[in-house]
Write a structure and sequence with these properties.
The chain contains 4 helices and 4 strands, in the order E-H-E-H-E-H-E-H. With 136 residues, it is α/β, with parallel strands linked by helices.
Length: 136
């Protein structure tokens, strides 16, 4: 058993350099039937995201029980440092996947998007504009 108090307990946590976190839960268990084109759509989603975000954006993807091809693609994005955080889980449901993406981050603005969203130019600016108009 440890004696005393954890010295890191009183250490001030510096503010994150990121101003916007995007959480995308991904559930593509196979590439058949209903999910036949889901992997292609995921790639379009991610590429449109990369083309439309600013440098202070923290991307979190939660793999929520996807098939091996999707896992390899997401691992590639993470190891190439194209996304900041990748969490692999079993299928725990969308809400719990989102909670996993939120935990441990303290970023002022969070966007939760499905893996089939097409991000259009200026979406991030327009989102910030709306949030700035809402009273704290």
């Amino acid at each position: 058993m440890r004696l005393g108090s954890n010295p890191n307990k009183e250490v001030f946590q510096k503010q994150s350099e990121y101003t916007h976190q995007i959480i995308i839960p991904v559930y593509i268990p196979n590439e058949d039937g209903y999910f036949r084109d889901s992997f292609k759509i995921l790639k379009l989603c991610i590429e449109s995201l990369f083309r439309t975000i600013h440098s202070k954006t923290y991307i979190t993807i939660v793999n929520n029980g996807s098939c091996e091809n999707v896992i390899k693609y997401l691992d590639y994005l993470y190891f190439e440092k194209k996304i900041k955080e990748l969490i692999h889980t079993d299928n725990i449901g969308k809400v719990n996947a989102v909670f996993k993406g939120l935990v441990g981050n303290n970023i002022e603005l969070v966007t939760i998007a499905d893996s089939d969203v097409l991000f259009l130019p200026n979406w991030q600016f327009e989102t910030l504009k709306i949030f700035n108009q809402i009273p704290k």
